[in-house]
Amino acid sequence: MTDIVLVHGAWHGAWSWRRVLPLLWAAGHRPVPVTLSGLGERAHQLSPAITLGTHVADVVTAVRAEECRGAMLVGHSYAGMVVTGAADRLGDEVGALVYVDGIVPAPGEAWGTRNTAEVQADRRAAIARHGHLPPPPASAFGLAGDDAAWVDRRQTPQPGGIYDDPLDFDAERWAARPRTFVDCTSPPLATIEPSRERARTQPGWEIVALATGHDPMVSAPEELARVLLAVAER
């Protein structure tokens, strides 16, 4: 049995993994979904004081509270930043890392570092105006119909203090970990392209392509679960 710690992306919550959880349980593993501060069912905690460091601490605390050993950390989208930071702090307490269309950072980078200048300007303006980042429509993630409506109902604002908060970590120790990048190709999300390129050009990555949009836990849960189980059962 492997503990599989699932960390959602921006504007989402632990709810986003709902269709994947029973597939992991049925295979004999223990999924541990984490909701980050200020999001999902913790939306009432939304505050400008929430930073990337807050979210890293959320995951570290969850891993230790659940007494996970050798856990696989799974980060969707923005949470690629979070699981990278959590793995750095947890060291040998966790094992493989899976980036589900996730941000692949370098030391000293923030979530917004590799966004285009236009995206950076738009997001900083939104944070200055609202104090947070309002969620985009779920259609931006390649979702439609009932799937899009389900996600739109549940998305919550992303804490603004996260966007430019840099992440420091030991790149050499990180590079020694087993790492899988789940590349969601249909349609590909433009803001993930720098991370997609980084994963494809750095040594040590396993790349798995899924012909679905940016929220595969919603649009292709069986396919995503198969990828996660393949990593967990090595």
Which tags fit this structure?
6-stranded parallel sheet, single chain, 9 helices, 234 residues, two-stranded antiparallel ribbon, alpha/beta
Describe the fold and architecture:
There is one protein chain. With 234 residues, this protein is an alpha/beta fold. It has one domain: 3-Layer(aba) Sandwich (Rossmann fold), CATH 3.40.50. It contains nine helices and eight strands. Strands 2-1-3-4-7-8 form a six-stranded parallel sheet, with helices on both faces. Strand 7, helix 7 and strand 8 form a beta-alpha-beta unit. The longest helix has 14 residues. The model has no long low-confidence stretch (mean pLDDT 97).
Total domain modules: 1
| Shape label | globular
Question: So what's the CATH class?
Answer: Alpha Beta
**Which spans of ≥5 residues are poorly predicted at pLDDT below 50?**
none
* Biggest beta-sheet profile: 6 strands, parallel
Order of helices and strands: EHEHEHEHEHEHEHEHH
Assign the CATH topology.
Rossmann fold
Number of beta-strand segments: 8
How many individual helices?
Answer: 9
The structure class reads: alpha/beta
Supply the CATH superfamily name: Alpha/Beta hydrolase fold, catalytic domain
Examine the secondary-structure arrangement and name the CATH architecture: 3-Layer(aba) Sandwich
Mean pLDDT across every amino acid position:
97
Helix content: 25-40%
Identify the strand order in the major beta sheet.
2-1-3-4-7-8
Strand proportion, as a percent range, falls in 15-25%
